Amino acid sequence: MNNSNVEKIKKHLLLFAFFIASGLILWGSGYIISGLKNDAYLQDADYILKNSPLCSKHQGVEFIKALNPSSLNMNFCNAVFEVKMKEKKGYAAFINMSGKYGIYQGMFLYFKEERQCFFCGLGGGIADKPAIYYGIIPLSISISEQKLASAFERLEINNKEKK
To answer: Which residues cross the membrane (predicted)?
Structure first.
């Protein structure tokens, strides 16, 4: 090989190394950010459970682990967590809800034994006021509850089939 070919190979290897390094940096930052995002949702969930009058009887909810919504075929959810309250197991989900002043994060709980999903409150430190104050009507809450309940029921059916 002559000198010009060696120089071309060095340039291409340098460019290739740059792209590999950039990809690794993007992957690593995405991994770190996903962990921070889950922590933010957990803080929001804690605030909602403490301050929302709709969740007064669910104060003892314990968050077990974060689940990936896309692996559950629930891409409409921003975050999904496995929860436990005493002997009952279930899920908590955050979804976007359109209101009068923009998009809000709604938190919903679903317990496997009850097979019912219910609205807990809005994230972002506003759980102490009713959702209607922010322009989220009961119809949109009920539609979201039904959508989540059917998604969680499908998830339970799939989990039983895998076993």
So the answer is: 12-33
CB 120 within 8 A of CB 55: yes
Rounded Cα–Cα distance for residues 140 and 134 (Å): 12
Distances (CA, A) of 64 to 7, 47, 57, 61, 129: 55, 17, 19, 9, 27
> Alpha-carbon distance 125 to 114, whole Å?
28
pLDDT digits (tens, 9 = 90+) for 10-27: 888 999 999 999 998 988
Report d(CA 86, CA 104) in Å as an integer.
Answer: 29
Region class of 104: left (phi > 0), else alpha (psi between -120 and 50), else beta: beta
Give the C-alpha separation, 160 to 59, whole Å.
29
Question: What digits encode the pLDDT tens for the residues 48-74?
Answer: 888 888 887 877 888 888 888 877 778
Residue located via tokens 């804690």: 46
Instruction: Report yes or no on whether pTM surpasses 0.85.
Output: no
Question: Rounded distance, CA 11 to CA 1, Å?
Answer: 15
